[in-house]
Amino acid sequence: MIGKDLSEARRDRITVAILALGGQGGGVLADWVIDLASCNGWIAQGTSVPGVAQRTGSTVYYIEMVRRSALAANAPDPVLALMPVPGDVDIVIASELMEAGRAILRGFVSGDRTLLIGSTHRIYAVSEKSAPGDGTASSQRILDAAERRAARFIGFDMDEAATQSRSVISSIMFGALAGSGALPFDEAMFHDAIRKSGKAVEANLRGFALGTQRAAGVQ
């Protein structure tokens, strides 16, 4: 599986897509991942593409990283992509269940390579709230699709975990990424990225710890 391949450092290029709603700290999470890679022997680039959703607006953050040691001594830095390409994403992190479903629909999740990390909680769209009776979309259909379409799926209620740890969902997602074993970095390196940011460090470390535990528990 992808987690085994990456954790054993067999890959020299890794691609990550983060799908998050406005206010969920997707940009902070992307910055942590970029700093994690850049400080530990990788060339990393991050971009973001804002979108308009029926909740608070969703954004796709894309990170591409290449191991420096894999480049020839005199080679220039590689030219990295600006957007995720269907069929070429190693790790997808979704801050809410419908965002995980959108990642699948957009082709970012591939059964032969993609680790999908997603929160199972829902933030309902206007169309779901305004429909007569129960207009909510089926969460189970998305969960079933995640299990079928991803090489590996790690899903749990990250919103609840953020509340429990008195933290924010971005730190839970970062912890889940660490707990997945999908990146060739140890836990101390993840901690360093949080500390280097200087933002709500203790709260983010609490959230990170719980995210790591929860991810390990669902594998």
Task: Please give a structural write-up.
With 219 residues, this protein is α/β, with parallel strands linked by helices. It has nine helices and six strands, in the order αβαβββαβααβαααα. The protein has helices at residues 2-7, 26-38, 97-105, 126-130, 139-149, 158-165, 169-180, 187-197, 201-217; strands spanning 13-21, 42-50, 58-67, 91-94, 115-119, 152-156.
Could you give the count of β-strands? 6
**Order of strands across the biggest sheet?**
2-3-1-4-5-6
Q: Which word captures the global form?
A: globular
Distance between the termini: 12 Å
**Structural class category:** alpha/beta
Unreliable spans are: 1-9
Biggest sheet character: 6 strands, mixed
Radius of gyration, whole Å: 17 Å
Average pLDDT works out at: 87
Q: Tell me the helix content.
A: 40-55%
Task: Spell the H/E element sequence.
Answer: HEHEEEHEHHEHHHH
The fraction of residues assigned to DSSP E strands is 15-25%
Q: How many H/I helical runs?
A: 9
Short description:
By secondary structure, the chain is α/β, with parallel strands linked by helices. The protein has 9 helices and 6 strands, in the order H-E-H-E-E-E-H-E-H-H-E-H-H-H-H.
Per-chain topology:
Blueprint: H1 2-7, E1 13-21, H2 26-38, E2 42-50, E3 58-67, E4 91-94, H3 97-105, E5 115-119, H4 126-130, H5 139-149, E6 152-156, H6 158-165, H7 169-180, H8 187-197, H9 201-217
Parallel strand pairs: 1-4, 4-5, 5-6
Antiparallel strand pairs: 1-3, 2-3
List keywords for this structure.
single chain, 219 residues, alpha/beta, six-stranded mixed β-sheet, 6 strands, disordered N terminus
